[in-house]
Amino acid sequence: MNSNSQSSKKVNKAPAELSWVLAQDESFDHLKFFDFFSTYKKRTATSKFRSIVNYWIENPEKKKKLLTNYNKWKKSKAKFYWETRLISQSSEPLSDFAESGTIAPRTNTVTTSDLDSLKDFFERNILDSRSGAYIIQGVDISAGFYNFQKSVCEYIKENKLTYEEHPQQILSLSSVLLLSQNSHPDFLKFISLENLNSVKRTIRNQFGMTASRFPRGVIMDMLDIHDDLQEGSILKTEAEIRFLQLSLNQEPAVAKIVKLYQALLIFLPPTVVAELNEATLSARYLQPVFSVLFDMESSQFSITNENNIECELNPNITKKRPDGQWTTGVSIYGRKANGFLEVKMLSEKENHSKINIDLVRLGIFSKNSIDVHNLKWCMAIQAIGTNLTFFLTQKVNKNLLLMVELEHIYFPQSREELVGLLGLSDRLFKVLVAYSSCTLDSNNQDNPEEGSSETLSSPLMKTITESTVSKKRKNYQQHYCR
Q1: Helix H or strand E encompassing 376
Q2: E-only strand ranges, 141-290
Q3: Alpha-carbon distance 350 to 354, whole Å?
Q4: What is the pTM (predicted TM-score) of this model?
Q5: Is 409 helix (H, G, I), strand (E, B) or coil?
Q6: DSSP H or E segment with residue 10
Q7: DSSP for 301-364, written as a single string
Q8: Would you say which domain of life the source belongs to (predicted)?
C-alpha cells in the first residue's frame, strides 16, 4: 500500500475525543489537548493526538502546522512537561465510584499531598465571580453558592463527606448547585428556602413550564378509552388503535404523551409482577417510555453498553457508562449527548449511598457534556424502579451550573395502574416542554470562550468521602418510592 493511500485511510470509528477537538476550532493544539485530557498517560495522550491530527484534521495546512509545532515542542520542552505532570497526578484509579455504589476499603487518613492537591484545586476553581453574578429577585445566588463552597472546603479539613447526606456538597466542588426537592440544612444558611424556590420558578418560567398545561379535552378522551377497555366494551387492540387515532393532528408534545399511553398499553403486563432486575426494568419498562417521549428526528435515546464521550473524556470521574443517554446530531463525530439516565431496582431504594452516587454521577455527566459540547442545558433522569426524577442542568457561568429538579413521577408497572398516570399528564407535559429546549440548535453557549471550571477528579473525591455505608444517615434528596 502506498503512502498516499495510507495517509488518507481513516479509522472506522471516530475517537471519543474528536467532538471536543472540533469544538476548539483554531485554538486546538497539542498542549491544549494534553492539558484537557490530563488523566491520559503520556503514551495514550500522544498516540491519540497524532491519530486525530493525521486522520481527522482535513485541512492540510492546519495538519502540517499542528505536527510541526508538536515535533518542535517534543524535542525541547516535552520532557519537562511530562515529568511535571506525572508528579502532580495521583496514580490511584477510581474503582468504587465507577461501580456506582460498590465501596472498596480505603484509609481515612488525609495525607499532606492530598491536602495540597485539594488546596490547589480549590484555588483554581472555587472563585467569587462578582462580574458574572446570578441574581434572582435581588438575591445574589452566585455569592450564596460561593460561600457554601467555602464552607464545604472548611468542613472537609476535619470531616468526611458521605454520599447519603452530602451529594449537594460533593457536587458543589465541581461548581454544580443541586436544587432537588429538599436542600441540606447547611446550604440553607447561605440561601433561604424562599430564594431557592424563586430560582426553580425562574428556570421553569424560562422553559415555559409554568404556562404549559395538557389539554383537558384530550385527557377526557383518553379516560373514555381506558374506561371502555376496563368495562370490556372494546378489546385491547381497539384501545391501542383509538389512542393512535387520538394522537393524530395534536401538537408534538401532546401527541407523544398520547402515544406513550398506547405504548404502555402494549408493553405493560396486566398486573404488577415480582421484583425486576435492572436489565428487565430498563428494557421492558423504561425503554418504551423514553423512546416514545424523547426520541425526535434530531435526537435518540439508547440504553447502551458502550462508553459515551463524557465517560471517556474524564476517566478519573467514572469509568462506568451511564445506563442510558440521549444524543443529538447527524454525523458520527458530531453527535452530542444532552441527556443521561441512571437506574436502580426498587429493592435498592433504602441504599441511600448507591442512590446518591447515581445522583452525583448524573450531575458529573451533565456538567461534562455541557463543558465538552458547549451546551447551555442537559437533561438527567434518575430511575428507582419506575419512580422517575427529572433534572435539568443549566450553565449560568463558568463557576455555577444549576442542576434543578423538574418533576418526580411514578410510572405504572401494569395496565391496571395505567389510569393513575392520566392525572399526571400536566407534569409529564411540562417535562417534555423543557426537554425540547435541550434538543434545539439554540442549545449552545452564547459565550463558549468563557471556559469551564474543572470537575473534581475521582482520586480527590475519594479523599474527601467516607468509605463506609450507613442507613442511619439522613438523606435529604430522595423522594418516597413505591
Answers
A1: none
A2: 176-179
A3: 9
A4: 0.74
A5: strand
A6: none
A7: EE--SSPPHHHHT-TTT-SSPPSEEEEE-SSTTT-EEEEEEEEE-GGGTT-HHHHHHHHHHHHH
A8: Eukaryota
